[in-house]
Amino acid sequence: MSGVRVELGPRSYDVVVGPGLIDSLGRHAASRLASRRAAIVTDENVAALYLEPARRSLQDEGLEVVDVVVAPGEASKSFAVLERVVAELLRARLERGDVVVALGGGVVGDLAGFAAAIARRGMQLVQVATSLLAQVDSSVGGKTGINTPQGKNLVGAFYQPRLVLADTQTLDTLPAREFRAGYAEVVKYGLIDDAHFFAWLEEHYQAVFAGGEARETAICRSVEAKARVVAADEREAGQRALLNLGHTFGHALEAACRYDPARLIHGEGVAVGMALAHRFSALQGLAPAGDAERVEHHLKAAGLPTRLADIPGSFAVDDLMQAMAQDKKVKAGRLTFILTQGIGRSYIAEDVDAGAVRAFLAEELADTPHRQKAVLSGD
């Protein structure tokens, strides 16, 4: 078992990484919280595997437990489901000092975290991350929220948990596609500012997929990287935006796919987005073309999509541009991207020329054999 401390003064908390942590959830929570009651928020898939052991562990420490089970997938990150979750918390008469346990992947963590932030004007929150994406990224740092028709994560709050448990044993039951999608977020930490970590992943990614020591090492290094950034810039006033490498393109693709998991899931969108960001940077003369090729090669080797052609269905440049105009990093209507000067040398690029982005996306679509020409203009 390993631990990483997220240093935020009196709101600091531990991220505990290791196998079998759901079975000791109650002990970890009881040692840090004074709650009498807990609400476990999870989805149907995770509930079938881990709801009972999580409930039992909390009850063994004397907590009364209620549970709220939602449908799996991005569709649950909505106003309607948020309203239902909050209503269940209030109906159960949970108090501010009680705890909401987010048991699941990124969707559950974002949804339950936002519910905890607004119910009773703020309840205690414990994140129990069961997917690789949640363990290395979304459970750490306090970003919570839901999606809207206008875009992804546009409604939410910064709300830090009191504890994060990353139970690596749950990854053994994670579908291969979901694991690959989470791995995209691991790669991100190397591409932002740690070229040595990216090189390590190129050499050891198969061992990370296989499990064991390499997997735990990759998770801990990712959490350590995120914890450093969050401690320095909790509310994304500056350098925390670097954690959005690949996300401006990726979120636009998710929105254009209407969050349909048959077409695209979040980590896949991030993978394509990171490849696009590196190719765009190279096209603008900011980064070596060889680095963009190296990034694409590694993502492909890990089984991740890197091109628009890898995503089922068609896209319109107009739709993608409109989605990016709603991105949270937009300032005074100007596009902000995370671009790169090479592997491990990402930076915040403000006022990126929208015409250059449009032309780049049109060229990317033109390289996709099965796209119709009309799609390029949004017709």
What is the topology?
Layout: E1 2-6, E2 13-18, H1 25-32, E3 37-43, H2 44-60, E4 64-70, H3 79-91, E5 99-104, H4 106-118, E6 124-129, H5 132-138, E7 143-148, E8 151-158, E9 163-167, H6 176-193, H7 195-210, H8 213-232, H9 247-256, H10 266-283, H11 289-301, H12 317-325, E10 335-340, E11 346-352, H13 354-366
Helix pairs in contact: 1-2, 3-4, 5-6, 5-8, 6-7, 6-10, 7-8, 9-10, 9-12, 10-11
Description:
With 379 residues, the protein is of the alpha/beta class. It has two domains: 2-173, Rossmann fold; 176-377, Dehydroquinate synthase-like - alpha domain (Dehydroquinate synthase-like, alpha domain, Up-down Bundle), CATH 1.20.1090.10. It is 46% helix and 18% strand. The chain has 13 helices and eleven strands. It has helices at 25-32, 44-60, 79-91, 106-118, 132-138, 176-193, 195-210, 213-232, 247-256, 266-283, 289-301, 317-325, 354-366, and strands at 2-6, 13-18, 37-43, 64-70, 99-104, 124-129, 143-148, 151-158, 163-167, 335-340, 346-352. The strands form three sheets. A seven-stranded mixed beta sheet has the order 1-2-9-6-5-3-4, with helices on both faces. A two-stranded antiparallel ribbon has the order 7-8. Helix 7 packs across helix 8 and helix 10 (266-283) packs antiparallel against helix 11.
